[in-house]
């Protein structure tokens, strides 16, 4: 039985992933901010000490409040540097993912098309994307696959907080938000079918909404 | 029952996709070059007239012979323009993919990191990638999802023709070629789980071998 | 004295480049469609035979009429394949750029963010971009530098034909179209200052309008 | 007379930029780590208080020591987060660049092709690239142009520290390192010719060495 640690697993995309992995018999630990808050590095270290290892690691955390570049304070940069970048780095460095395992990180479409209102997320999630790319090459030696999922607008509380969801949906080619289940099932399928060669890759998940060519 | 047309379905990646879609009960038509040769536009038109529509369309064709830029002749540009680009455009324009269906195109990692020996493929598969991106936005209105799979080195006859496969494998972080089955199962899972929001996206499939960040 | 061949040099961006290179003492041949029409391959071959070599080559040609993907006919694909791709390939293969020379290609911002109304240009200019990238590596051995300029909305007849220019300008962060002179002076400066290490690169030129991160 | 603040202006690329801007009559303040050390945020704040405004701002700083992902300590992440990211953010937020001015940031080719030995730089320079892209859109309203220069291997002390320079040069298509002067002259030309429409753009400067297509 594969053990899966799902950060931010109590709601939204994280919960959908936890449910989906449970459905194929994984031993899922779905954590909320009480168990691990990546903005708080001692919480991260305690978590690493407690869990030590896993077969599947899902790096996932909520997004910062909407801010334009000129509005972000030094304190906010520091806080979200921990939450979106440094906490994940420590986990990836120190929590052992077993040979043949998987790491998925849930980032955001803003890593390819940065969003003026989401400047913090655009910067730090992208920084982690670079680290994750390099880590995927190191981890490949132990047959660990690393996949970066970059969701567009998904039907979660987070997106509802960002504005009028049904209005946003109209501007997406698919005329709807994505369902958390779609991402959960996507990850489940990769694990279930032992697809390993898909690694070191960023996968936008956005209903054909992005505009860059590749 | 969903109907699937798999071009180049008699061997390699195409065959793996055909097998995988059959295993979940799709009605698969796996074509060889006898049924449709995308280098030959009248063959393409005949094929469109015969099949008219499908639920799942797999655009897949063999690669051109290795050539550096200075070696490619005018005649070769013309031939592979048909095979890798124009034939696919006609299919996408005229063969109806039913509402809620899927189009997958199998391109190559060279669309993001062009390869000096594979200049023809680097150019025309990338041109089609641009068309496919735009088509994904049009097709989204009818809930058709479009996914571009860009394989790295996969264990097929094609790759064996390109050189010493076990030598090539050593330079890949995963120390092996990909298996056609991994791509077949990947596509199967998307269809089986009705994952639709993944569209307008290019997915490198290369064992963590590529070097670009996103 | 350096010889410069400027295709499409009778108006717009091409003319600005021709003027700018003249101003620093280059021997400029600014061609119009009468001297070379890249849509017509025999015209291209005649041009190569006549000129044989140059120090600076500016690959530049008008854009196709606006068309969405479903509207493009087979004949149009063929025509613009010649005009935007194959004609340039033949020139790059057969017209000798002297050691220490320069090749600039003027493409378009649509190569990174394909435009639904400009599908032909999005596809073939991108295909040439792949070829040009690979050629830059071959030509580097002879100290020839290759730079791809990808203009956004520039104040030319072409852009006026595409729609209401002052309306378009409002949506650009810089609130104006670019001036052809800016591109002319940019190219002039590279030549004048013997900047050679800038090669194999695509430079969007768009008033901060594009949305991709890198 | 335009005022230019050049960070890291006492040697290497920064010095070449300072010299080049001086040669066209700019009033250049070339700072060394004594005047401003971006790793030290109070030094950054003092610098902002002292200078308040400029016409041209060159964001430039040395690179961190080579480290692979698993080797980087928490303390190092924190330090270089300040040096490569947060210090630059504060400068861009609080030091006024006059209307019609310029901001150039000197990053690195690793922002597009992250380097396993330069993981810190790959991450934080890329994070700043996202911020800089968004800032370019805000600053465009005041006709300030923002250009990100991403050098490959340039003939500086830094590169000599990283290894055998002449050995490295052999693997570059141009068979040499770039000269700091080439970057200095490039920036000078943009200022001198009042090229403003080039903004929100990242320009690799690497002798045709990179492998991504766009």
Automatic annotation (TrEMBL), chains A, B, C, D:
It comes from the Archaea. SUPFAM superfamilies: NAD(P)-binding Rossmann-fold domains. It holds the Pfam family adh_short_C2. InterPro entries: NAD(P)-bd_dom_sf, SDR, SDR_fam. Belongs to the short-chain dehydrogenases/reductases (SDR) family. PANTHER family: 3-OXOACYL-(ACYL-CARRIER-PROTEIN) REDUCTASE, NADPH-DEPENDENT REDUCTASE BACG. This is Short-chain dehydrogenase. It comes from Candidatus Nitrosotenuis cloacae.
